[in-house]
């Protein structure tokens, strides 16, 4: 019995020594300069790992995994420290509430019994009810969900969704919703946010994914912009070009030519009073002809949702402006 114990103890000691040696070797490889073998020093303020002997920068742009705030006493540290996900305007409670997970498993990964699953389902139901305490929060929850759905269908980035959520919250706080549908104000907020963040979508594109008709959408958009004093600049036709060029699978040369045509037309005053989407479609069609990458008017029309007649009229105007400028 004692012999077995001794042998086991010896084996564990050898394993511990071997692990210690491997860890030491790994640490030695990391902490030694590859150029001169000197000691490495980590400069956290600059995010660099530098050799203390020869000055070689071994690693740069290091990640600072500490907090972004500073505290000079224990009281400030307690006030500023936090856990959990960052707050967001895309949720009605700004992401501060908690949810009960949908998995019917306990902390050890074991499946719950039938009675426990029923209990958890009731708790989820009541938790969802308590998250929206009044009609204003229920309104906000429905609207933000609608904004998220439409933004996802249009491929809009997170910053546009955040801006649209802020616009809708302002409209709700200033009591602009009576007499208008939640979907209408949400659609108008998303369209205005896309224009403000320089990632515009056409009226037809937004109306396609919305659940309201075109007239209500346009009327609500004008009302929201006027009442909230939103600064929405006229849409730049060039901002539509990269997306349409990508969908048509054309080259960078076509995109550059289209931008040049639109810039020249803008300087000549040709673009004034005309639809920016129609101008972008015509510029892409004209640029494809100039770059010998022919694409049909029908193909451009299908991607941009602009009629072929509009494309023909606009592209001739763009080419004439380019010829006059030359």
UniProtKB/TrEMBL annotation:
PANTHER family, alphabetized: TRANSCRIPTION INITIATION FACTOR IIB, TRANSCRIPTION INITIATION FACTOR IIB-RELATED
InterPro entries to which the protein is assigned, alphabetical: Cyclin-like_dom, Cyclin-like_sf, TFIIB, TFIIB_arc, TFIIB_CS, TFIIB_cyclin, Znf_TFIIB
Listed Gene3D superfamilies: 1.10.472.170, Cyclin-like
GO biological process: transcription preinitiation complex assembly
Record field: compositional bias (Basic and acidic residues): 14-28
The protein's name: Transcription initiation factor IIB
Keyword Repeat: yes
Biased composition (Polar residues): 1-13, 86-102
Record organism: Halarchaeum rubridurum
One Pfam family, short name: Zn_Ribbon_TF
Family: Belongs to the TFIIB family.
Domain TFIIB-type stretches: 29-59
């Amino acid at each position: 019995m004692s012999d077995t114990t001794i042998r086991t103890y010896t084996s564990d000691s050898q394993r511990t020594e071997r692990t210690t040696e491997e860890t030491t070797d790994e640490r030695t490889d990391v902490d030694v300069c590859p150029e001169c073998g000197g000691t490495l020093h980590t400069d956290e303020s600059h995010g660099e790992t530098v050799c203390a002997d020869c000055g070689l920068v071994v690693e740069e742009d290091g990640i600072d995994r500490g907090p972004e705030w500073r505290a000079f006493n224990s009281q400030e540290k307690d006030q500023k420290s936090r856990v959990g996900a960052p707050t967001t305007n895309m949720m009605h409670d700004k992401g501060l509430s908690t949810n009960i997970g949908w998995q019917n498993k306990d902390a050890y990964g074991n499946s719950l019994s039938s009675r426990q699953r029923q209990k958890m389902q009731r708790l989820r139901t009541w938790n969802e009810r308590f998250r929206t305490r009044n009609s204003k929060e229920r309104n906000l929850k429905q609207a933000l969900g609608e904004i998220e759905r439409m933004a996802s269908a249009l491929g809009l980035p997170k910053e546009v969704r955040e801006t649209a959520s802020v616009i809708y919250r302002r409209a709700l706080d200033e009591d602009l919703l009576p007499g208008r549908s939640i979907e209408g104000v949400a659609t108008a907020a998303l369209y205005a946010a896309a224009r403000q963040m320089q990632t515009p979508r056409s009226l037809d594109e937004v109306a396609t994914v919305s659940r309201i008709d075109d007239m209500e959408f346009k009327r609500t958009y004008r009302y929201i912009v006027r009442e909230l004093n939103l600064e929405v600049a006229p849409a730049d036709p060039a901002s539509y070009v990269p997306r349409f060029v990508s969908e048509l699978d054309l080259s960078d040369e076509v995109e550059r030519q289209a931008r040049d045509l639109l810039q020249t037309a803008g300087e000549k005053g040709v673009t004034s009073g005309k639809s920016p989407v129609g101008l972008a479609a015509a510029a892409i069609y004209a640029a494809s002809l100039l770059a010998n990458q022919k694409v049909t008017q029908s193909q451009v029309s299908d991607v941009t949702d602009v009629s072929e007649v509009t494309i023909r009229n606009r592209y001739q105007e763009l080419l004439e402006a380019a010829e006059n400028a030359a």
